[in-house]
Design brief:
single chain; Rossmann fold; 3 domains; 10-stranded mixed β-sheet; 3-stranded antiparallel β-sheet
Length: 371
């Protein structure tokens, strides 16, 4: 893995730096906070040198932005503090919504609940039949939509009730109801809502047979670069406030650097320790040690205010190695980047993934990076 060359683009007030950073990342350009500059109220912004030609115009535009331009930047900044929670009214999705609320309280983020409902399976047949059958199908569809809307409204009211009871500031909850395929609906809502994170519940042992995520969560991860936080059915909700240790599993891919930059935003509210781990199976241990040194240097240069530990683990079985590390080090959240040719291939394998899912009991944070 070749570490990209990072360059400094300037010193800015924190508010201006945040506007530039969000604007760059909105078009796919990774941007990092460096050390605080000599000026007490300024921070350093850094980007990959290879991104400079594409970033230059945006940097100049946002540096001079005033009035409507600045307001547009502020709106974009607010959009990052948004959490999308797809729900199907199962216990798992309700647990995900409660987790999202706790996270939103830390991040001062708004929550958008969403539900996609399917028409009855006979709809395609009914439209070609007699009017009475069509009317009956229409009535069933309207009833299903009304029921879903009522359930969404009740879930919204319950979360808002918790917000009032706990005196949470800067957090609101609304919802979207769409008809159609859940995966497509998630993409549609994400397109206009622009969340910084998607929180989803995974299915229980007896309710799905397609690997760690289930098909909807899997497709949500593979469709975009919005991080997805998958909450397993066995997760202990009371452990949220004790989140202290996060494990990032690396396969030494170039996209790691972008994922690790975004990881800081998730970890910061918890003041958690980060473990960066690579499971060595075959090939040269010397090569892996060299790659890990490069990653450790990256951390030391750009994560100076975080508690980070990097290392290698030898194991013939990737998932068993991760599982053992999670148990031994009492990991609270597992994070990785979704690439077709890395660990996610293992997680999508039903037998291996079920083993990890039902023993680990911790959320999985996945950063989009699919080819």
């Amino acid at each position: 893995m070749n570490e990209p060359k990072i360059i400094t683009i300037g010193n800015y007030t924190y508010s201006r730096a945040l506007l530039i950073k969000v604007r760059l990342e909105a078009v796919g350009i990774a941007c990092f906070f460096g050390d605080t500059s000599s000026a007490a109220n300024e921070v350093v912004l850094r980007i990959n040198e290879s991104d400079l030609p594409d970033a230059q115009y945006i940097i100049e535009e946002m540096t001079k932005a005033t009035g409507s331009q600045k307001e547009a930047g502020i709106k974009l900044l607010r959009s990052v503090r948004r959490i999308l929670v797809p729900v199907d009214f199962s216990e798992e999705s309700e647990r995900a919504a409660r987790y999202a609320l706790k996270l939103a309280a830390y991040m001062k983020a708004d929550i958008r609940l969403m539900h996609a409902w399917f028409p009855v399976s006979s709809e395609h047949f009914a439209w070609g039949e007699m009017y009475a059958m069509q009317s009956d199908i229409e009535a069933q569809m309207k009833a299903a939509e009304a029921e879903a809307a009522e359930k969404l409204s009740l879930m919204q009211k319950e979360l808002k009730k918790q917000i009032r009871q706990r005196s949470i500031k800067g957090v609101d909850v609304d919802y979207d109801l769409l008809r159609g395929n859940p995966s497509d609906a998630i993409s549609a809502v994400a397109h206009h809502f622009k969340p910084g994170l998607i929180v989803m519940g995974t299915k229980g042992k007896h309710r799905f047979q397609r690997g760690f995520f289930g098909s909807t969560t899997q497709r949500a991860i593979s469709k975009g670069k919005i991080p997805v936080l998958a909450i397993p059915p066995s997760y202990d909700e009371n452990s949220f406030d004790r989140t202290q240790r996060l494990l990032y599993v690396t396969n030494f891919d170039d996209t790691d650097f972008d994922s690790l930059s975004r990881l800081k935003a998730f970890v910061r509210p918890f003041n958690a320790k980060i473990y960066c781990l690579h499971v060595h199976q075959q090939g040269s241990m010397v090569a892996d040690e060299t790659r890990m040194r490069a990653m450790r240097k990256y951390f030391n240069d750009r994560f100076q205010n975080f508690d980070i530990e990097c290392g290698l683990l030898q194991s013939k079985d990737v998932l068993e190695g991760i599982e053992s590390f999670i148990e031994t080090n009492r990991i609270d959240v597992l994070a990785l980047t979704a690439r077709r040719q890395n660990l996610l291939d293992y997680l999508f394998n039903p037998e291996l993934s079920r083993k990890l899912l039902f023993r680990s009991r911790i959320p999985l944070l996945v950063f989009g990076g699919v080819d």
